[in-house]
């Protein structure tokens, strides 16, 4: 008898094991591997040579003649390309306005300015690299390293093979004119680290870390009417003063930091939290030498997931203002050596450099496009050609300004008996709150439900009896449909909260891909991008069953990262490809996708843009915040603000929404805000309609008074008239003048009250 029960027990254990394997098997069966998007830069022309040249008379850019050391190697109707063969430096003459752009200022004697030989070589060398010598990083330049250069010439430009022989690293640099644009390209297949002893014991390893293409292109000591356009947050400008406002620098990764290389900081109650910089979502910058006459748009077109934007003030390292991208091919990381002691680690590197095509586009701006508006318009033209960015469907235009309401339906908190659901808004409560808003005249509402699903440790969709069950959910969705209220469900396929899951990615050091969410004071765990589409496919039938035709998707701003996957390195551009695959799958299956602060490569998938940045990082050297993102996207999709539940200055916040053409957004709960105090929504301090009603009415009435005049129109111009006064123009002929000053302002024959605006 005992033997029989023992036999049955073993069978049950095996069956249980098989069942567990079945449950977790969905994550194990998906192998990593996707083809990253290939760059078709040859098919794109932003500054089309067929356009009429701006005839400026005298040269608007550099007045310095082109030195004899520079030989002309290519030309077309708009541009001429010159090369200094000793340094791979270039000059580009814009035939439309007579200006010449140099990769270093040839009018300045670098030796006469008492630069060190190293700095002088950095200024003059067309391209530089950063290498690791063992574990110490250092910059190498063409001149400083006596790199060997060989050239091949073509009608449109040249290819330089650059051999840093001392480091045993070489690669090709392709430089070509493309009508009114200039393209530089470092083909990944051309990069060689050819030291045969690389990585072997006892060898002085030198590995490639970064490539820095033309860091002084368009640099200037000062320009009377010039500035640099930074992609920081919404956008910012820094004037090219003879004496800088602050001699400092700024560097930030495009699309955010790569956590695959970094240790996760430990969160403690005494930890000093520094407000994070605004994310860079546009892979661009601009240099305006003379507003209205000569400017430059630069696009990190290939490899943007590994690009870092850099601004350097004059009088910090050199006498020049600099604006440039660097591209990361390898970064050291701490490889843990002990399972019991996480502090025992050694520095390590991935074996192969990151795999991406470095492509950088220079678009030369002339005439009235030579300003930050022209920078934004040029990038929009690029997106239309590359991604097929489509203008908003005229059938979608609103009768009134829309407003977004996110409901926190369910959260998670530690209770007396362990982790517990925290119902914050039932389906019936959400429907009733929307009804109240509708009765007050809010006819253009966009509503999202947001719930934390305990089994997933993430914000996903499930039917919860605690919120009213399927009957109440369907009644709410039907009510929204009948009353023309746009409905979407909040979903995050990119992250889990509090705990790692079977979908969690691994850092290069094999540890879980955890990041500290400073705003929430919580840990997030980033999912391996290969699971994004699996999760979407799994949920599709459920979405259709419950008539969910649109998702409000968050978290994809964390997608471009480097990670380890069962012996394979996953690259940032592959994570971007997985994200695109997921969004395309949803769109192809009739699910629209609104996105929270999407990066530029995802704009083509966004039905709406949520959490639109209306600020820059407000760094001390910034002269003004400008609406780069709205200038790119206005008229192409609806843009909604971050939650306006709380603001230190409501009057200015409302004016910012008007200036940027952004619609207001709020987050609500049916229960007391206290209920979500210790949850993932702990940063929401006030959330009940009865408390927020006056604020919502105020924001909506003022914003509507302005933006009802320009609904669905494209923002075609933005001008800083005076300190604290801006003029915004739309393609329907309407203009809005906004006065942030504490005093009345007179514009032409119109008086604008303090903290007010007028429609012209």
Structural overview:
The structure is a single chain. The strands form 9 sheets. Strands 7, 8, 9, 10, 11, 13, 14, 16, 17, 22 and 36 form an 11-stranded antiparallel β-sheet that branches. Strands 23-25-27-31-34-35-37-38 form an 8-stranded parallel barrel, surrounded by 4 helices. Strands 6-5-12-19-18-15 form a 6-stranded antiparallel β-sheet. It contains 10 helices and 44 strands. Residues 1-27 and 54-62 have low confidence and may be disordered. The chain is 19% helix and 32% strand. It is of the alpha+beta class and 760 residues long. The protein is globular, with a radius of gyration of 28 Å.
List the SSEs and their pairings.
Blueprint: H1 2-28, E1 70-75, E2 79-84, E3 89-94, E4 100-102, H2 117-124, E5 127-133, E6 136-141, E7 148-154, E8 157-164, E9 169-178, E10 181-186, E11 192-193, E12 206-213, E13 227-230, E14 236-239, E15 249-253, E16 284-290, E17 294-302, E18 307-312, E19 322-328, E20 333-336, E21 345-348, E22 358-366, H3 372-387, E23 403-415, E24 418-423, H4 427-439, E25 445-453, E26 458-459, H5 469-482, E27 486-491, E28 495-497, E29 514-517, E30 522-526, H6 532-545, E31 550-553, E32 563-565, E33 568-570, H7 572-588, E34 592-596, E35 608-610, E36 624-625, H8 628-633, E37 638-643, H9 650-660, E38 663-668, H10 689-707, E39 715-722, E40 725-730, E41 735-739, E42 745-747, E43 750-752, E44 756-759
Parallel strand pairs: 23-25, 23-38, 25-27, 27-31, 31-34, 34-35, 35-37, 37-38
Antiparallel strand pairs: 1-2, 2-3, 3-4, 5-6, 5-12, 7-8, 8-9, 9-10, 9-11, 10-22, 12-19, 13-14, 13-16, 14-36, 15-18, 16-17, 17-22, 18-19, 20-21, 23-24, 25-26, 28-30, 29-30, 32-33, 39-40, 40-41, 41-44, 42-43
Helix pairs in contact: 4-5, 6-7, 9-10
């Amino acid at each position: 008898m005992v033997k029989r029960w023992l036999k049955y027990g073993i069978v049950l254990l095996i069956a249980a094991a098989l069942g567990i394997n079945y449950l977790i098997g969905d994550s194990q069966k998906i192998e990593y591997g996707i083809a990253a998007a290939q760059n078709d830069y040859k098919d794109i022309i932003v500054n089309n040579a067929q356009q009429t040249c701006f005839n400026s008379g005298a040269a608007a850019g550099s007045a310095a003649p082109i030195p004899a050391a520079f030989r002309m190697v290519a030309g077309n109707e708009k541009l001429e390309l010159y090369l200094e063969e000793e340094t791979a430096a270039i000059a580009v003459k814009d035939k439309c306005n007579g200006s010449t752009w140099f990769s270093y200022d040839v009018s300045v004697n670098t030796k006469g300015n008492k630069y060190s030989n190293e700095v002088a070589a950095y200024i003059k060398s067309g391209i530089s690299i950063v290498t690791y010598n063992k574990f110490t990083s250092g910059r190498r330049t063409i001149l400083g390293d006596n790199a060997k250069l060989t050239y091949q010439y073509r009608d449109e430009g040249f290819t330089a093979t650059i051999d840093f022989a001392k480091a045993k690293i070489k690669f090709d640099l392709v430089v070509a004119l493309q009508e009114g644009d200039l393209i530089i390209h470092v083909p990944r297949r051309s990069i060689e680290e050819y030291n045969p002893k690389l990585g072997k014991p006892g060898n002085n390893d030198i590995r490639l870390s970064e490539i820095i293409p033309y860091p002084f292109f368009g640099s200037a000591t000062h320009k009377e009417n010039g500035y640099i356009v930074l992609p920081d947050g919404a956008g910012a400008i820094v004037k090219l003063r003879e004496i800088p406002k602050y001699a400092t620098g700024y560097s930030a990764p495009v699309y955010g930091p790569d956590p695959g290389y970094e240790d996760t900081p430990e969160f403690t109650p005494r930890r000093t939290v520094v407000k994070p910089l605004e994310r860079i979502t546009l892979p661009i910058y601009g240099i305006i030498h003379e507003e209205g006459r000569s400017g430059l748009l630069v696009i990190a077109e290939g490899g943007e997931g590994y690009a870092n934007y850099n601004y350097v003030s004059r009088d910090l390292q050199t006498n020049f203002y600099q604006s440039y991208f660097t591209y990361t091919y390898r970064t050291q990381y701490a490889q843990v050596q002990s399972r019991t002691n996480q502090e025992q680690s050694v520095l390590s590197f991935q074996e192969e450099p990151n795999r991406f095509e470095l492509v950088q586009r220079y678009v030369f701006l002339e005439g009235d496009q030579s300003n930050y508006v022209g920078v934004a318009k040029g990038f929009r033209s690029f997106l239309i050609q590359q991604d097929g960015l489509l203008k908003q469907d005229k059938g979608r235009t609103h009768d009134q300004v829309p407003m977004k309401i996110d409901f926190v339906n369910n959260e998670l908190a530690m209770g007396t008996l362990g982790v517990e659901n925290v119902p914050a808004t039932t389906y019936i409560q959400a429907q009733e709150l929307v009804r109240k808003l509708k009765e007050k005249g809010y006819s253009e509402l966009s509503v999202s439900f947001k719930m934390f699903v305990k089994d997933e440790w993430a914000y996903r969709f499930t039917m919860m009896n605690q919120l009213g069950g399927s009957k109440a959910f369907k009644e709410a969705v039907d009510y929204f449909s009948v009353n023309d209220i746009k409905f979407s469900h909040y979903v995050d396929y990119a992250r889990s909260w509090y705990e790692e899951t079977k979908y969690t990615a691994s850092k290069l050091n094999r540890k879980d891909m955890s990041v500290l969410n400073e705003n929430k004071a919580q840990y997030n765990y980033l999912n391996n991008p290969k699971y994004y589409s699996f999760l979407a496919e799994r949920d599709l039938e459920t979405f259709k069953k419950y008539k969910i035709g649109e998702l409000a998707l968050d978290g994809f701003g964390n997608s471009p990262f480097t990670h380890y996957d069962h012996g394979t390195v996953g690259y940032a551009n592959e994570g971007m490809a997985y994200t695109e695959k997921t969004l395309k799958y949803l769109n192809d299956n009739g699910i629209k996708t609104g996105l929270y602060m999407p990066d530029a490569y995802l704009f083509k998938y966004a039905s709406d843009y949520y959490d639109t940045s209306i600020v820059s990082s407000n760094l001390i050297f910034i002269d003004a915040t400008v609406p780069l993102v709205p200038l790119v996207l206005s008229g192409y999709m609806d843009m909604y603000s971050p939650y306006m539940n709380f603001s230190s200055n409501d009057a200015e916040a409302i004016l910012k929404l008007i200036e940027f053409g952004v619609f207001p957004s709020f987050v609500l709960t049916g229960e007391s805000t206290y209920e979500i105090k210790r949850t993932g929504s702990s940063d929401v301090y006030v959330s009940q309609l009865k408390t927020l009603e006056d604020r919502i009415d105020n924001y909506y009435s003022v914003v509507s008074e302005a933006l009802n005049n320009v609904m669905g129109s494209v923002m075609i111009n933005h001008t800083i008239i005076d300190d604290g006064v801006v003029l915004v123009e739309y393609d329907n002929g309407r203009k809005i003048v906004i006065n942030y000053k504490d005093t009345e302002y007179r514009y032409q024959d119109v008086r604008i009250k303090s903290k007010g605006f007028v429609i012209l």
